Amino acid sequence: MNSEVTTGYILAAVFIAAGITFLLRLLPFGLKKALAGSELLDALSHWIPLGAVALLAIYAVAKINYSSFATAAPYLAGLVVTVGVHLWRKNMVLSMVAGTGTCVVLANIITSLRILLLLKPHLSRQPSNRLSRLLPPLFR
Question: How confident is the model over 3-19, as pLDDT tens digits?
């Protein structure tokens, strides 16, 4: 086997990959006329978006770190809000935005509380620190 890779070899590989990609991108336009009015295509166009969202949801829930309540709570709350808003309004975009917003806000609140709890011993030693005066009484 030749260990030297030539410029021609690299260019050939790039052009072959680009040609295959171009043909694969062109293929749906050619098949559109052939499959027009197909019951299979109508069924797939109805079920594929739902299947894609379901697979993404299953993947996301499987990747949640359940080792502590603080790490899992924002994600599970976002999931509950997403499902609840979708059942209430039947609007996928609104439900995803509401669920994502809930998750982000709760994750930021929990992170901020963890940081404040880590800083609490250092702040109690210096009562004149400006940050300690801004903390709520619970963290003093």
Answer: 788 999 999 999 999 99
What DSSP line would sit under 44-81, residue for residue?
A: HHHHHHHHHHHHHHHHHHHT--TTSHHHHHHHHHHHHH
49 CB burial (10 A radius; 0-12, 13-18, 19+): exposed
Structure tokens at 34: 């052939």
Structure token pair of residue 53: 């969202």
Q: Token pair of 72, please?
A: 């899992």
Tell me the whole-structure pTM to 2 decimals: 0.59
Distance CA 105, CA 111 (A): 10
C-alpha distances out from residue 109 to 54, 64, 84, 112, 119, Å: 28, 18, 22, 5, 15
